Amino acid sequence: MRETAKTAREAALLSLTACERQGAWSDNYLKRTIREAGLDSRDGGLASKLCYGVQQEQMLLDWYLAQFSKLPLEKLEPKIRNCLRLGAYQILMLDRIPDAAAVDGSVSLARKHAKNPKAAGMVNAILRNLIRGREELAPPTDLATRYSHPAWLVKEFDLALKGRGTEALLAADNEAPPTMAQVNTVRYETGKVLNALRKAGVDAELHPWLPDCLLLSGTGDLERLDLFRDGAFYIQDAAARLAVMTAAPKAGQKVLDACAAPGGKTFAAAVLMEGQGEIWSCDIHPRKAGLIQTGAARLGFGTIVHTAVQDGRERREDWLERFDVVLADVPCSGLGIIRKKPDIRYKDPGPLSGLPPIQAAILENVSHYVAPGGVLLYSTCTLLRRENEDIVSDFLDGHLDFTAEPFQAAGPIGPVESGMLTLWPHIHGTDGFFLAKLRRRA
Q: Residues 181, 183, 185, CA angle at the centre, nearest 5°?
């Protein structure tokens, strides 16, 4: 392992500790730390692998480490606790890093960051005992510890799945998701983009059931590619693309993306509209709205995409009954994208109870922007019924001018008679996602 890889370990350590102590989101903090450290793509990749891997397996790692530590892990300094987790993850979960390098890396970090001068020796002893005793370790019997999902979350998923497939979902949450690229078919042919990506060294293949969607691996930094800069594709999960396909915006129509960041649904709508029509793309943060406009310009949609800094709960009189299609991808608990953001599982569940009123308020408000005969598409990236079906059902009970509309979903999903669909990572290979197609009566 190269010397600079220790810097990668340190970036992972600092990100893990910031996430644990400050409530930071690891992806943003890690990207900033990698950038500030000047890590190249290889070491940046190692830092990401270590940080996300530890978060995916954190409860299991703690369970193993507790068998070799004389002190309860919760009594240790946060950085020392994460030094141990990093070492244990490399020893138990990775094949290509020698045990000695894993131990030495964690000991060096402990020596540099610990307040207690004896901490480095303790880290060394625990990890070496782990190496000697790992063959005798038996996995924990409870699903929560085995798959590092807090017990409350396992219970929620088990209720949502009615006791069928819970373990498969937990396992899927701990797998690396594929990178999905949606081809900008307004400007490029899918086959040509596929071949060009392969020539650029990217492993690319057609998605098995979504048209003009590519599965990518071995990508490195996609933004370095001329194809990306020229607007040949954008990154979006298959679930979000399916949601926009369900709403089915057409060329020349007016579309509102009420909660748009990072902009994937806006771009998908522009593609389906063949670059013709009017799209308003909204976010409450000016910086994110600016990024959406930049992305639209890169893809060649700068003339039809208009951005606005707008709270979905606040009424705009000039938008009443104006739009043929309104997309409401509301703020949610995010429990469907744990495989992409593993730290979500450890957030305090208490504040989640405040989300349904916000979601209901946004749905209520933006429904007034739908023209008679138009479509309102409600969606979330969570799997909790109280944020999904319950919100839509309550809305329909109070709005007799809207009805849930059956639709035909792509590929193996087929007809959705209820007008509401939940996508599951372990079943569909997508993000965990909910969507409901609502039609306003003419």
A: 170
Given 3-state DSSP classes, what are the helix, strand and coil percentages for the chain, each rounded to the nearest 5? 50, 15, 35
- Say if CB 414 and CB 421 are below 8 A apart: no
Distance CA 103, CA 197 (A): 39
CA–CA gap between residue 25 and residue 353 (Å, rounded)? 20
Judge whether 259 and 281 are in contact, CB under 8 Å.
no
**Helix (H/G/I), strand (E/B), else coil: 254:** strand
Percent of the chain residues topping a pLDDT of 90: 86
Q: State the chain's mean pLDDT as an integer.
A: 94
Among candidate residues 51, 83, 332, 381, the one labeled active-site is 381
End-to-end alpha carbon distance in the chain = 66
Of 280, 269, 277, 197, the residue nearest 233 (C-alpha): 197
Count the helices and strands in the chain (H runs, E runs).
18, 14
381 is catalytic: yes
Nearest to 195 by CA among 241, 242, 232: 232
- Residue 239 CA to residue 332 CA, distance in Å, equals 15
